[in-house]
Amino acid sequence: MLRHLRDAGPRSRARIAVETGLNKGTVSSLVAELVERGLAREGAIERDGAVGRPAQSVELDGRRIGGIGVEINVDYLTVLVLDLRNSVVVEYRVALDVQALSAAAVLDSVTELAVRALGECARLGMTPIGMTLAVPALVDVDAGVVAFAPNLHWRQVEVVRGVIDRLSARTGVRPAFPIKVDNDANLAALGEYAMGGIAGASDLVYLTGETGVGGGVIVGGRLLRGAEGFSGEVGHIPLDQSGHDCGCGRRGCWETMVGLAGLFRMAAEGNDPVRDPSLDLDQRLDMVRGRAEAGETRTLDALARVGTALGLGASVLVNVFNPRALVLGGYFASLGAYLLGPVMRELRARVMAPDVGGCRVELSRLGFTAAARGGAHVAFESVLDDPTVVAVPSPAR
Ligand SMILES: [Zn+2]
């Protein structure tokens, strides 16, 4: 019933009974229990249908619990806390040159940010319910291990154990909530599906525009994971056999043409501040945008080349999956004004189905927060499966 309230929105007990097939008495007692645990509350008076009697609606509350999403990427760390209604209550992002650090040092920084977020949750009276780390990597989700993250230079990093150990050492207690790690594009796709501009589009392809380019594919409302959980490595589709070396050790992968490193390489010389990884990514992208707006030829050429290559690779995905929406995330969204034209031109030319198979190209409104939001969102799964994991608050003394 909690899941139904989240997915379907506020509604009366009578309507919940009809929609779930539970009898009214059961619905009323379940609502009472959810209210007691701070997961639901009484909403506005609503009329059920045109002729129905006015009834009190029930809606999600969830201000008492927080889902934590963490994103580890090449240039930054993000920690973000959502409440059960998917509102952001805490958000920190720090610039970090992850490639220059050991995995252990990066996990130390993750722990610092997580401790700050947990302190803020405590101040707000929120109980942390779960934490999901998003990493641009092949991830063994069950083992909690990053198998291979080419752009972070990580192999076989025990992320979940590392974070649990560090949080335990910092706070003196083992975290009481589950901690997981997953691929960033998968989590971002789930974030878009749950709360993005195309929320509810049950067939969508999400692309991360970062140093690496990953794909999260949702088919029929389900995330496509593949036999071993390693699907969606779209950044390594070989599109340019004579092209640049890729972080994965191969040559000419799609992400060498459209990833951030490719954009910066085409747009600026090596000593240009645009290519300085110690600067905040937004700052560097603002410089690129500023130059494009000023009509600087090299920048505009670079963006046009990225847009064309983005459309070329996207046409492969649209031909394979026939998605309702192709969502461009990360920097593809922030510089979308310069990329959409060439992307659409390539899609129209290369997708077999008429009218690009009904696929819309959307710029992510969640931007660089999509993966952390998706991670925080899926952290609520344990509560949706069993709301009794949230304790009934003891009466105030
Ligand atoms: Zn590659």
Q: Could you report the average pLDDT, rounded to the nearest whole number?
A: 93
Briefly note the structural class of the backbone.
Answer: alpha/beta
Residue share in β-strands? 15-25%
- CATH class membership of the largest domain: Alpha Beta
Number of strands: 16
List the helices and strands and how they pair.
Elements: H1 2-8, E1 11-12, H2 13-20, H3 24-36, E2 40-47, E3 54-60, E4 65-72, E5 76-83, E6 88-95, H4 103-123, E7 127-135, E8 138-140, E9 145-149, E10 154-157, H5 159-171, E11 179-183, H6 184-195, E12 204-207, E13 215-219, E14 222-223, H7 254-258, H8 260-267, H9 281-293, H10 297-321, E15 325-328, H11 331-334, H12 336-350, E16 360-363, H13 370-378, H14 381-385
Parallel strand pairs: 4-7, 7-11, 12-15, 15-16
Antiparallel strand pairs: 1-3, 2-3, 4-5, 5-6, 8-9, 9-10, 12-13, 13-14
The structure holds zinc ion.
Tell me what the structure shows.
This protein has 3 domains: 2-60, Orthogonal Bundle (Arc Repressor Mutant, subunit A), CATH 1.10.10; 65-186 and 372-386, 2-Layer Sandwich (Nucleotidyltransferase, domain 5); 197-365, ATPase, nucleotide binding domain (Nucleotidyltransferase, domain 5, 2-Layer Sandwich), CATH 3.30.420. It is an alpha/beta fold and 397 residues long. The protein contains 14 helices and 16 strands. 40% of the residues lie in helices and 22% in strands. The strands form 4 sheets. Strands 6-5-4-7-11 form a 5-stranded mixed beta sheet. The protein has a 5-stranded mixed beta sheet with strand order 14-13-12-15-16, sandwiched between helices. The protein has a 3-stranded antiparallel beta sheet with strand order 1-3-2. Bound molecules: zinc ion. Zinc ion binds at residues 236, 246, 248, 250, 253. The site of zinc ion has 5 residues, from loops.
